[in-house]
Write a structure and sequence with these properties.
This protein has 164 residues and is an alpha+beta fold. 29% of the residues lie in helices and 28% in strands.
């Protein structure tokens, strides 16, 4: 595991388009990759992480420390090679991000996901995140309607870190 670099952008975008191809059309996977413009790795590389081996990027976490909430950090996007899922790669990325955030005084980590992403919801809960109350419930999960725009509902998570 290492700190991300701006040069990782192309590989990460390619991985998103490839790794999500099993659950999305090529166009949907391409659209998903648009959630990771280069600016995230130009401005938040020091708080983002990459797992790689001799075959290239195998997992990544793009996250940042909030500029407006001095005690908060946010996990924006995480990807793990389908061959590594279930091996603890995502847990290791999250744990490293938590430690990094706590070290500089961040006490809260936030993340969001789609209500249909049941795997992400289960993972965040297993990592200790609480679901923040929203304005509706979908399949027993509290959801924030139109969070990211009309029809873009999200499940919002919050985790309180132990002081470093």
């Amino acid at each position: 595991m290492r700190q991300a670099r701006a040069e990782d952008h192309r590989a990460i975008v390619e991985r998103v388009q490839s790794w999500w191809a099993d659950s999305r059309t090529p166009e949907q996977a391409r659209e998903l990759s648009l959630l990771l413009p280069r600016l995230f790795l130009q401005h938040f590389a020091t708080t983002s992480l990459v797992v790689e081996d001799d075959t290239g990027v195998r997992a990544f976490l793009v996250g940042f420390h909030s500029a407006d909430a001095a005690d908060e950090a946010y996990i924006h996007f995480v990807g793990v090679d389908p061959q590594l899922r279930g091996t603890g790669a995502a847990r290791s990325l999250y744990t490293a991000f938590f430690a990094q955030a706590a070290k500089v005084g961040r006490r809260t980590v936030r993340a969001t996901t789609s209500p249909s992403n049941t795997g992400s919801i289960a993972f965040h809960r297993a990592m200790g995140f609480a679901v923040e109350p929203g304005d509706q419930e979908v399949d027993g999960v509290s959801v924030h309607s139109d969070y990211d725009g009309p029809g873009q509902d999200r499940v919002c998570f919050r985790l309180e870190l132990e002081p470093d």
